[in-house]
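For the sake of transparency, this paper describes our internal protein records without simplification. Such a record has a labelled line for the sequence and another for the backbone structure tokens. Nothing more is needed to write down the fold, since each code stands for a local backbone conformation. For reference, a complete record is included directly beneath this paragraph.
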Amino acid sequence: MRAASLLEGMTLVLLVGIAVPLKHLADFPVAVRIMGPVHGLAFTLYVWMLVQTLASGRWTRAEAVRMLAVAFIPFGAFANERLLARRQRALASSV
């Protein structure tokens, strides 16, 4: 889940921070045509991993909403990754 979050977050930042400005400021729409589908695939993977994670039943509704919401915020995935790492450590120590 952590890797999927980081991948989705990086592709979102690249899309919004580089590809879209290149399209509008430098008249270079190819950047969006390339990064758009890459981000779409990463987002789909992230949502699929989120559904799989939530199916385990050990996550609250608030955690699920937070993990979905950060997928729409540039750089949100990086904060999410820290929270997921903390959760992973807590689960590992309780086993």
